[in-house]
Write a structure and sequence with these properties.
The structure is a homodimer. By secondary structure, chain A is an alpha+beta fold. Chain A contains 5 helices and 10 strands, in the order H-H-H-E-E-E-H-E-H-E-E-E-E-E-E. Chain A is elongated and about 75 Å long. Chains A and B meet through helix 1, strand 3, helix 5, strand 5 and strand 7 of A and helix 1, strand 3, helix 5, strand 5 and strand 7 of B. Chain A binds a DNA duplex (30 and 30 nucleotides) through helix 3.
DNA sequence: CAGTATATTGAACGAACGTTCAAATGTCAA
DNA sequence: TTGACATTTGAACGTTCGTTCAATATACTG
């Protein structure tokens, strides 16, 4: 038999194509990518990748790449750096899909101020905010207090609701009238450099 | 003239299709999506969206959606909640593309331990690590110290290199021999719930 | 060496693709 | 009412699409 093909590398090439073109390749584009002379060789390759669970096809037979935008998810810091073999097997995860469940109701907002500093949320961080969701006890919310918007812990004991900053400088707030909640923080993102 | 179409809503529908199908729609799929009877109506719509800068086409004429995975990027927390008009105009940003410049060299690792707690990096957070990059002064790196991998600040004064934890509990380390750097932290991600 | 499973070629098919053109529709202003 | 313009229809074109089939090449096994 001819030399067996490296499925992992094939997937990587297809992922690269998809990232660059923002869409999965067609079979003829795959033929060029792998330097086949026949389109059917690509067809055959894709079938093999599907059998191995790397790819899918949609109803029209087009290649469906579940998460061509993403990073490999490895173990923990302590585990240190994995071997190349482990790297290959790592799951690829799209941060967008992982963090954003409801794209229409989710926004990215830059943090200013230090009211949540003890929760590890610094000025300059980005927070993913989902609006229109009912906050639960100890969720971090964006709320309007005295005509100003801030981030606070949402604390509910029985019927009493308090807004608590993660910073001793700021006292807890018991909203007297209606409580305006802009949204619930679902994630924090800090980018360096 | 017939009633003008809502470009913003059109873009939103196309984005939704792209998210669900992991690829941009074809013109015939657009026809169905907008309930046109002629494929050319969709063609015309796309032309208009391109003129307005919402879309592009690639060399093959296929619809190219720059970031159909993404969130709308709004202002700051203090600015509070924007009006619907502002929401429409907000830039859509893909977290994957924003955070990951070199997909092949970037990994997601779960943080254990508290060595970087004062830098707002908690146990359970995810860090994006880029390998094979030369760390600069004050970068956060993953390094091997005494056969253990940890996160530390990389500090370089002249020729002397130190690894400093963001936690007073741990003393700075001056590596005696070679210094094994696993990678440089480019982002921190914390997901709630 | 022959046998066999894997891998690749080449040609062909109907369907879906992006694109074009001419014609028809609706709606507002004059 | 009419003219001007924006939108939609419908049909047609060459091209690329996913898929199929038969034939061939490759490299390991017995």
């Amino acid at each position: 038999m001819p030399k067996p093909i490296d499925l992992n590398q094939a997937v990587r090439q297809i992922r690269k194509f998809s990232q660059e073109n923002k869409r999965p390749p067609s079979f003829d584009e795959l033929r060029k990518l792998f330097r086949y002379k026949s389109k059917n060789a690509a067809f055959w390759l894709v079938d093999k990748l599907i059998d191995s669970g790397f790819l899918k096809k949609d109803k029209q037979g087009k290649i469906l790449f579940d998460s061509f935008n993403g990073v490999r998810l490895l173990g923990t810091v302590q585990a240190g750096w994995p071997s190349p073999a482990e790297e290959e097997l790592a799951d690829v995860m799209s941060l967008d899909e992982y963090l954003i469940k409801h794209p229409d109701q989710t926004f990215l907002i830059k943090v200013s101020g230090d009211s949540m500093i003890d929760a590890g949320i610094h000025a300059g961080d980005l927070v993913l905010v989902e609006r229109g969701r009912q906050p639960k006890h100890q969720d971090i919310v964006i709320a309007e207090v005295d005509n100003e918007w801030t981030m606070k812990y949402y604390e509910k004991n029985g019927k009493e609701v308090r807004l608590v900053a993660a910073n001793k400088k700021y006292p807890p707030i018991k909203p007297r009238e209606e409580l305006k909640i802009g949204g619930v923080i679902v994630a924090v993102i800090r980018k360096y450099k």
